[in-house]
Amino acid sequence: MKEWLKSKNLPLLASWLMKFILIAIFGLEVFSGDYLTGIAAFLALGISLLPMFIARNYATNAPWPIDVSITAALALHMTGVFYDLYHNPQWWWWDNMTHLLGTAVIAFLAFYLIFILDYTNKVRLSLPLMTLFTWTMALAIGAVWEIAEFYIDVAFHTNLVQGIEDTIYDLIFDIAGAVIVSMVGVWYVRRLKRRGHGL
Hints:
Blueprint (H helix, E strand, L loop, with lengths): L1 H5 L2 H24 L2 H14 L1 H8 L6 H19 L10 H27 L7 H30 L7 H31 L5
Helix pairs in contact: 2-3, 2-5, 3-5, 5-6, 6-7, 6-8, 7-8
């Protein structure tokens, strides 16, 4: 049992459980006639399957934290949409949590990409530039997300943007997620240097 828990089976199980949550939300929303949320759940499911698709088609092994973190961020977001937690005052922290986690995942992917490119000598970047790339990518996608929410509200008469204060807090937590991942990334690279990997 201990060996099973230490293996990749547990993260894989957690990932698939969260994917089934997305499938369930998709089915329930389509059945209830809320096609916009159903489409969003379907797209979230597709994105959550990308690491597996890339691993199978390009003969590479994506680290399981990438798969689990992407799926977790998407499942939490769609759960919040499904239960209307974003508009519930008792769950005021849900929006902040999902923005923090979502941006952290994006920042993690950005750092992982630039780290691999640097580690394989495809590009050579100093540690400050790697951090800047991580910040820029995460915050840019966060800003695009806010713009997308605004235009979805305009097109479909939804209520994703709840005023300027909501947008500002979203961006603040986007920054926090990027900063946390950047700090962890800096620590990781310096740890590799101390072990003589020569980055």
